[in-house]
């Protein structure tokens, strides 16, 4: 391990894995999304179009959960997609507080053109892994993601105070 942290071997191993995972994820994201600029799309805009393409109309809240973006950021993304005629917002008749986002015909046509190239790019990136390595990577990242999500959910349920991430120190 190439870090100088003086913690335990397990801590150094976790730190090393974290750095490698973060760097690899960043490199994969940049490489996989580079072609989006050719279509004047940001990564977030593409994520919205792709989610709507596969899942159909979604509320802004469900979209934010699906694409892992804050609702504030998502509002701006949807504003821009709506301005470009790629999505439309509609109030849900059964609950007027909820706004549903839907692909327009232009949005469907664009994602149908962009998605195959995106999938091919991802396939090319992961081509360095054989099928067993790919399955292992998928299983390990799923396991890690679920464990972290459970921990975050448990932290959110704990009362504010000492030991809770983000809590103010007690005086």
UniProtKB/TrEMBL annotation:
Coiled coil (UniProt feature): none
Annotated GO biological process: response to stress
SMART domains, per the entry: HTH_MARR
A Pfam family annotated for this UniProt entry: MarR
Transmembrane segments: none
Superkingdom of source: Bacteria
Residues in HTH marR-type domain copies: 14-146
GO terms of molecular function: DNA-binding transcription factor activity
Name this polypeptide is given: MarR family 2-MHQ and catechol resistance regulon transcriptional repressor
Native organism: Deinococcus metalli
């Amino acid at each position: 391990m190439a870090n100088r942290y003086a913690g335990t071997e397990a801590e150094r191993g976790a730190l090393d894995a974290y750095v490698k995972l973060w760097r690899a994820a960043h490199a994969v994201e940049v490489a996989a999304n580079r072609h989006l600029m050719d279509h004047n799309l940001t990564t977030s805009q593409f994520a919205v179009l792709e989610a709507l393409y596969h899942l159909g109309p979604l509320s802004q809240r469900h979209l934010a959960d699906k694409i892992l973006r804050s609702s504030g950021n998502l509002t701006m993304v949807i504003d821009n997609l709506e301005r470009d005629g790629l999505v439309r917002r509609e109030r849900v008749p059964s609950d007027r507080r909820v706004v549903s986002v839907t692909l327009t015909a232009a949005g469907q046509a664009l994602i149908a053109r962009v998605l195959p190239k995106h999938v091919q790019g991802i396939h090319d990136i992961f081509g360095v892994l054989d099928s067993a390595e790919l399955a292992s990577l998928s299983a390990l990242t799923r396991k890690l993601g679920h464990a972290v999500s459970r921990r975050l959910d448990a932290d959110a349920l704990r009362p504010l105070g000492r030991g809770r991430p983000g809590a103010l120190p007690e005086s």
